[in-house]
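Please, structure for the following, as tokens.
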Amino acid sequence: MADGPHDDVTSTLSELERKLIELERELLSVAGGPATDPAAVPALGEPAPPPAPAASSSLRAEIDELVIVRDRLQTLADELIERCDRIVGRLERADAGGGAPPASGADR
């Protein structure tokens, strides 16, 4: 009876693989792709097939939007760094001069 649990695991894995192949066939038929034969199913870790054209255009739009947001964030980050550098420079000059830093509303 030592093979009992091993047989259960093997059976479960085989059933999961069969269901995965069925799902892939169904997805490909919905996407308008060719039916896949079980031998042609990529192994785990291999790249997935490219998305359907409609999904690609939607994905492209999302990527373009994210690039715009990234660029805005980069610009804001650069401005903040520049502003902090100016403030630190003023504080260092004031500390070297022994006096209080001049108050300016421009760097607040």
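DSSP finds two helices and no strands in the chain. The chain has a mean pLDDT of 75.
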